[in-house]
Amino acid sequence: MEIKIYDDQSNPTTGAKLMERLITLDKVDLIFGPFSSPVTYATSTVTEKYGYPMIAGGSSSAKPFSRGYKYLFQVMRVNNDSHLGNLTLLKEKGAKSVAIIHSASIYPASLAKGVIRHAKRMGFKVLSVDKYPPKTTDFTSLLIKAKGLNPDVLFLFGYYPDGLAITKQVKDLDLNPRHLGVMLGASYDEFGSDKGLGKDANFVGGYSGWEPFLDTPGNKEFVKKYFQQYKDDRFLDSHVIYGYLCGQVMERAANEVGSLDRKKMRDAIAKMNFKSYMPGHFEVDPKTGMQIGHEWASMQWQNGKKVILWPKSAATGELIYPAPSWKKRK
Fold it and tell me: What is the DSSP string of 4-40?
């Protein structure tokens, strides 16, 4: 078997041109999707034209799947649903109000939009929604406003550097929401390490598409085989499992069909339903190709470790709510 790999340089136009080359010049049998929603959006126009099933292992946006395409399929659930578990658990614990601060960047803004929609639907009172320009380092004015509102839950949406900086300033200002959610920062292992926040990461919540310690069918064996194969200290994150799942889906479809007939494989994928290493299962909406089986895992840092809270079938602990104030922490 030969594998053709081209670098799209995270450029949608380049990705589309390379996809055309893979299909028309290299005449490949199968296509694995690229990373990022913008590149997926561009390249899927090509795969749709030629009738190639494409498993999008790097796109959590709804936009590529809003065009009625029949050959595009999603691996991870749409990012607007990433906080369904967090909100459900907070509601059960009695939280009633939410304040949101987010980067004006596309991805964090999309996460915030999803939380606003679900929070209102679930009966939370959304006290404020404030945004800041990318690369902001001083969040004082926004946090002072949030402190005056005294929300039960404060959600902060930005990238890893934002998450570190803003959480430090939350502590400095003695801002004490009953729950603090920091995305995407809290999802990274470094967040709770000595290079990150150390013990100040405790009680901070976040979400994840997958974790190597999840108790899902076959996950422990997968992680063991992964390190047996590579024999180094490379970082193992959710993107590895997204790519692996693309291969699983293609293999299952080919075995079910008994050939590489792309139309038949497309039909098989549209009906596929199986337990994967990710929370939930693999299942797509047959009309849109969007993922409906995967569940985003809710997590909280506790005693220096990430604890999975949701889905409950994969939970390794329970949500600590309300979190103790900064001055009462050891």
Answer: -----TT-HHHHHHHHHHHHHTS--S-EE--BSHHHH
